[in-house]
Amino acid sequence: MFSRLTRPQALAVCALPVVALIATAVFAPLPFSVAQPGSTANVLGSFKGSQVITISGASVRRTTGQLRMTTIVATGPDAHVSLGNVIDGWFATDRAVMPRDAVYPSGNNVKEIERHNAEQMKQSQDAATRAALGYLGLGKDKDIKVSLKLADVGGPSAGLLFSLGIIDKLHGDGKGGDLSGGRTIAGTGTISPDGTVGAVGGVSLKTRAARRDGASVFLVPKAECTDARAELPEGLRLVPVTTLKGAVAALTALEHGGSVPSC
């Protein structure tokens, strides 16, 4: 024998699967990472107790001002990111939702990703050294050794700032002054051995980290100007760059009153 359900009872029964589906969607892991502004480091100084740039075989200048590389901090590759986390991240001004594949190589475990990031950092350091020494005309025939150390930071995005730091320590602005002009300059960008600056991602978060830590100027890969302008902190000036040579020229112009590019 079966009894007929009343309309409210029927609606309640039908609603149960819908509620279950919604709950599953809200709490199920999604292929995203939630990122926020990370630490910055003055490449002309020390970071976590170690000198970032150490040079031997050449005279090193005493510098003023700061050249700060910037980072983002993202949820780990194995973190559980739910729909609720994604929605919160979309509406937060101090966080950003990014595809996990844009932050971590797809399909790798945590150890493989850590190893990959360490390799990228090493390649970035090598490229930064070659680009800086090449810019200064100091080839392999010169007995100059550069050591770069940035504890617990991986990936290639510090390349541009590494190169600028090496140039500042060896050459400055070429007129007896510093590339920074005594300012706190921040930025991001990959670097290739020939001095080409590449895009990195997470720029809007890095500008926030830069301004938080006192920067007034931010060097940004030109291709990412739009992203950098989207939520630009007040008091931070964007300077787009495509090459190491262009970055040096922009900083020199900034100090000596020349024409400086803008986004």
From TrEMBL:
One of the GO BP terms on file: proteolysis
Record InterPro entries: Lon_proteolytic, Ribosomal_Su5_D2-typ_SF, Ribsml_uS5_D2-typ_fold_subgr
Protein's name in the database: Lon proteolytic domain-containing protein
Classification via Pfam families: Lon_C
Domain annotation Lon proteolytic: ranges: 154-237
Any one GO MF annotation of this record: ATP-dependent peptidase activity
Signal peptide: none
